[in-house]
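Work Package 3 (structural annotation) set out to generate three-dimensional models for the target panel prioritized at the project kickoff. During this period the team completed the workflow that converts sequence records into discrete structure tokens, so that structures can be stored uniformly alongside our sequence database. As a representative example, we reproduce one entry of 142 residues exactly as it appears in the project archive.
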Amino acid sequence: MIGRLTLRSLSYSTEDPEKVARAISSIVGDIELRKRTVKGHFGNPVVVITGEAGRKKAEKIFEGILRSLGKKDRERLKEELQKRLDEENNLHLRFDKQIAYSEGVPRLTSHGDAIHIRVKLILYSKGKDELIKKMEEMIDAC
């Protein structure tokens, strides 16, 4: 059901890129992270941190994320599945970077300064409704 997982987060000049990397690792575990420095809007350095996992590792990571989510976030995710799925069956998640660092847990957020995770979902069946149903079952199982 999970084809691939990609992630991205930004470390602004006021943040320590290593702390942001630790926040990411607190959510996804052991994954190779790449860092690239770019210039921000005002010329300040911004470190772009990215990572990806193939099918088997992505499944393990995603199941771990679902198990780590609090009940409120699991319910929120179920309610928002339709909005979080794009036309190519990518599930888009944003997790609060500060909470991931300070508390070591994933917490869904809607603001942009977050850890962005995209999960490619694969289902060989009847379309988006079936995909959403399978995702709800997966969330309930955790």
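The radius of gyration is 15 Å.
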